[in-house]
Structure formats: C-alpha cells, structure tokens
Amino acid sequence: MILFWISTLALIFVGVVFIALPLWKAKAQDDDARRDELNKAFYKDRLAELKEEDAEGLVNNQDELITELKQSLLDDIPATEKAQQDSLNARLFILPSIIIFIVISYGLYFKFGSLDKVEKWQEVSARLPELSQQLMNPEGVALSDAEMANLTLALRTKLHHEPNDAMGWFLLGRIGMSNRDIDTSVGAMKKAYELKPTDVDIKLGYAQALMLSGDDAKADQAKQMLKQVLRGDSTNLRALSLLAFSSFERQDYKGAVSAWKAMQMLIGPDDSRYEMLTRSIERAQSKMNPEANIDKQVPITVNLGSNVTLPSQGVVIVSIHPADGSAMPVAAARMPLSRFPLKIMMSDDNNMIEQRKLSDMPNFIVRARIDQDGNVSTKEGDWYGESTVSTLGENVSLEIDKQY
User: Fold this and answer.
1) Domain check: are 251 and 312 in the same one?
2) A Gene Ontology CC term for this entry (predicted)?
C-alpha cells in the first residue's frame, strides 16, 4: 500500500504542475512579446516608406515624422503596473485550483476506487503463510469457507507474480479439490506437475484430481501415474489407496482387492485401518460375484396407492427395521421421487451402522415414506407404507397408502 500511495502522490504532483505552470507564467508576457514583434515590423515598414517618400521629394520634414512614429510606438506600451497586476491575479488562482484538484481526485477514488477491497486484498495476501500452514496441517482446525476464499485470492495473487512456484500451484489444486472445483484443481495440479514432474506429492495430487474429473481418459492417465509411483516405491500407502479407489470406481474389483490387501500387509492387523480395509475387500468381493450373495440381498418393490397425490418435490426413503417394529432402521436408502412402482435392491451396503448388519437379521419389515421437506425427523403430512414380516432373499412388495 505504501507504493500505491507514493504512486498517487506522483500522479497528483504531475497534475499540479500542469495546473500551476500556465497560471504562474503571466499571460501578459506572451501578449507583450507578440505586440512588440508587430510594432517592430510596423516601424520598419513605415520607416522604409518615409525614406522612399523623402527620396522622391514628397516630404520636407522627415525627422519630425520619424519622431512622431517613435512616439506612437511608445504610446502603445501599457503601463508596467497593469501587466504586473494581471500576472498577480492569475497567480492567485493557483492554490485554490490545486486544492480543488486534490480534493476531487482523492474524493473520486474513495468513492469509486473500492479502497476497502484493496485493503482486504492486501491483508489476505499478508496472511498467506498462516493460511497455507493451516490447510496443510492434517491435525489443524478446518478452514471456513471465507478463509478458503481468502486463501485462494492470496494464492492467485502470489502465482500471478511467481508463476513458476510449483508448490503454490499444488496448494491451489488442493483448495480446488476441497471446494469441488475440479476444473481449477486439474488445471493447477497440471501446472505444478509440469514444473516438478518428479515430486511424488505433486504427482499423487495430480492423479487424484484427474480421478475426480469423471473423464475416462483422465482416469486412465491417473492410473498410469499411480503405477509409476508404486514402481518407484511399492510401500506408498497413499498411492495404493488412490489406486484401489480408482479401480473400484471403474468396477475393476479384482484390482481394488489387490491394492487393499497390499495396504493390509504394510500396516499390519494392529492398525485401526486394518478392519476398514477388510470391509472394503469384502464389499469388492461381493461385487465380483453378486450371485453368491443373492441370499443376503433384499429386492424391494414400492407401489403407490390410488389415493395418494404426489407432492411437487420430495424424496422416497426406504428403510428396513427389525420385525418388532423398532423405529431405528438397520438399513436405509434415499431415492428420488420418480415413477412408481419403484424398485430397489438393498444389502449390507445400505447398513446404518457397522455393528448391525442386514445380512445378520433373520426377519424384518420394510417401510417406505415420501419425505416432502428433506427432514427425516418431521413426518406430519407425509405418505408412507409398510410391508409384512419378510426374510433375506425374499421379494418384498409394499404400498404407500397411509398418511401421518
């Protein structure tokens, strides 16, 4: 900001010079110079005429005529006091003009120059190191939306002046992922990767951004990058985790199981993540052979009663409860409000908590409700239905025809 104010003062000084110079330099002096030049030219012309007339004998008193000509030139010169007075009057306008110019200039800037935004921008830029450390610290306090926006602004400002800062681009990519701004994330990570293609953290960040893009070609590129990292370091847990996630999302369940098992071997059974990896492996294996798990699934058909009028908005919540009618569901799914009958397949993937599995229940009931406001705790006015007691693998059909 100091440089900014110095710059404005320099511009003000230039403006003051342009205002003061014409007023300080008395206009009378310019008029006098022009008058003197005209008088000199007139005098010389008239003097030449007199000499010609004298030579032709037309005049007898040449000396008197020359004296009169000189006197007429003297009479044309104004009094010195008047010229000085005109110059003084002009100079009196200098100070008021300068004051008015400065007031208008700074007044317009304070009114339309967004000074508050400039000051905030400078303040945010100064906090860049603090916000960066807070973002990179996994055990630190999460940044608020406003702080994330401030960090993005500060980073973009820094990268504008330092476009070859690879870690700055990497950090901007991380922020893009946090904000679900995939285009910004991919673009920033790509720039960081171009600047430091051998940095493992940048390579993994770029691969993760490519995976989240939803583009098959970019997903293939990410997979190749992850394999390249693992060729250099087969114990990199983050690379294995990203590879497993990518494989699972692309229905390469065998590849996902292989990556998760490799992670289990590295962390050991005493690690708290081991059990989570086991569940992920079981889930992938069930996807590999769905016929073997058909008896642990519940095919459900939800019909709509003829007395029901569908609301303009809402969702259908399908939940499975113990046969005793307990309010707490064992498994649940949220479906968009669309055409009926609604068909859904529920399994352990829909469990509410890990300690209670749908596959462990000998019998149960299924409930379906049209939730109009998105709040599961409010039911008044909602339409619902309930099935009879059913078992795993059995086709369950129910009808929504009652209202709370």
Assistant:
1) no
2) cell envelope
